[in-house]
Amino acid sequence: MVKKIAMALVYTALGSSLYAGTISEGEKFIGLEVGATEVQGDVGGVLGELDHKENGVEFGLRVGAQTEQWRSMVLLNYFDKDDQNTEKLMVTVDYFFLNSTEEQNYFKPYLGANAGYMNYESTNVDENGFLYGAQAGFVVEVMESMDIDIGYRYSLSTADKFDHTGSVVFGMNYLY
């Protein structure tokens, strides 16, 4: 448990230093996200087979900063369904690739990358590992201090008994 907390603090520090430069220039935000998630891993059955897929709902907290072209976040996500659960601490960096005019700045599509650390638990399995992947989606400004985010995030793992996770994510951010 101490190792998990230490790794979480290390990744939080790394993530905050990654986007520290944009905090003074851009908008900071805090938000929530929910996603329809698929997790593929081992449930303690035949050694080496990662053929157990579980679909369910993932919940998360997000903190970050964004400018007109870039967004970076630190995410803490939790998934629990039947005999599989995951906890993920991730850092994401997104690029808003269609720079719209000032009048149409309410719709911003993005492409991005993610990296982080995860814990995977299943029947007779308790494993930690690194995650890395990509995401794509769009951000829509609902109000001056609030936007919503709809996207898809896919992450692979370095863990032996956990293969990947993919999520269709809906997020809501409060900008301050």
Give a quick rundown of the structure.
This protein has 176 residues and is mainly beta.
What do you see in this structure?
This protein has 176 residues and is mainly beta. The chain has one domain: Porin (Beta Barrel), CATH 2.40.160.20. It contains two helices and eight strands. The protein has an eight-stranded antiparallel beta barrel with strand order 1-2-3-4-5-6-7-8. Strand 6 (125-143) and strand 7 (146-157) form a beta hairpin. The protein is elongated, with a radius of gyration of 17 Å. The termini are far apart.
Strand content: over 45%
Instruction: Provide mean pLDDT, rounded.
Output: 84
CATH class value: Mainly Beta
Helix and strand run? HHEEEEEEEE
Number of strands: 8
- Helix/strand-derived category reads mainly beta
- Tally of contiguous helical segments: 2
CATH hierarchy: architecture: Beta Barrel
| Strands side by side in the biggest sheet | 1-2-3-4-5-6-7-8
Coarse shape: elongated
How many domains, in number, for the residues? 1
List the helices and strands and how they pair.
Layout: H1 2-18, H2 20-25, E1 27-41, E2 52-66, E3 70-81, E4 84-96, E5 107-122, E6 125-143, E7 146-157, E8 162-175
Antiparallel strand pairs: 1-2, 1-8, 2-3, 3-4, 4-5, 5-6, 6-7, 7-8
